[in-house]
Automatic annotation (TrEMBL):
Highest taxon of the lineage: Bacteria
Family: Belongs to the TRAP transporter small permease family.
Function summary: Part of the tripartite ATP-independent periplasmic (TRAP) transport system.
UniProt organism field: Kaustia mangrovi
Protein name as it appears in the record: TRAP transporter small permease protein
Annotated ranges, domain Tripartite ATP-independent periplasmic transporters DctQ component: 43-170
Keyword field: Cell inner membrane, Cell membrane, Membrane, Transmembrane, Transmembrane helix, Transport
Gene Ontology, cellular component aspect: plasma membrane
């Protein structure tokens, strides 16, 4: 009977340890899966390029161009996630020396500027996409597809930027305004 109790205690301690090591994935959304898929397609294409170039000594011509455009896709799709999570870099130095009310106003001004930047850049990408008639070099796909994808990503950043701005306005706080009160779980939209 004592052996069973010891085994049960050991098992409970192991389960408690496993729970402590568990990663918090509460800020991951289903839309983040697209970034993961594009990333792994990029990894496969780069591996294929390496394998055909250095192992087979006969490189596939399309892999370099497609890898470049997939990297652009990963970057801008990841930027949507970064805006949603408010994980873009920020200069915190100025915020430390301002009173709380000034920090809040500065946060709202920065949020508004970011939203205007995302919307303007998205609009410029649509203009570029409409004017681009050139085809990709190695595959028969218009280059404008890349610009349309980037424009769609800027639209996503604009939408999440507006939601972040409204949340900061409604709650009166953010990671930069009240760094002591802010937690990673509270950032989710």
């Amino acid at each position: 009977m004592v052996h069973d109790e010891d085994a049960a205690i050991a098992e409970a301690e192991l389960i408690a340890e496993m729970d402590e090591d568990h990663e918090d994935l509460s800020d991951v959304r289903s839309s983040d899966g697209l970034v993961l898929v594009v990333f792994w397609v990029l990894a496969f294409v780069v591996f294929l390029q390496f394998f055909t170039r250095y192992v087979l000594n006969d490189s596939l011509g399309w892999t370099e161009e497609i890898a470049r455009f997939l990297l652009i896709g990963v970057t801008f799709l990841g930027s949507i996630m970064a805006v949603r999570k408010e994980s873009h870099i920020a200069v915190e130095f100025v915020y430390r020396y301002l009173p709380r009310r000034a920090r809040l106003w500065l946060q709202l001004v920065v949020d508004a500027i970011a939203v205007v930047f995302y919307a303007t850049t998205g609009w410029l990408c649509t203009e570029m996409a409409q004017k681009t008639r050139q085809m990709m070099v190695s595959v028969d796909v218009p280059k404008s597809v890349v610009y349309w994808i980037v424009a769609a990503c800027f639209l996503g950043m604009t939408v999440y930027g507006v939601l972040v701005f409204l949340r900061h306005l409604r709650t009166g706080t953010s990671r930069l305004v009240d760094p002591d009160r802010f937690t990673a779980v509270d950032r989710n939209i």
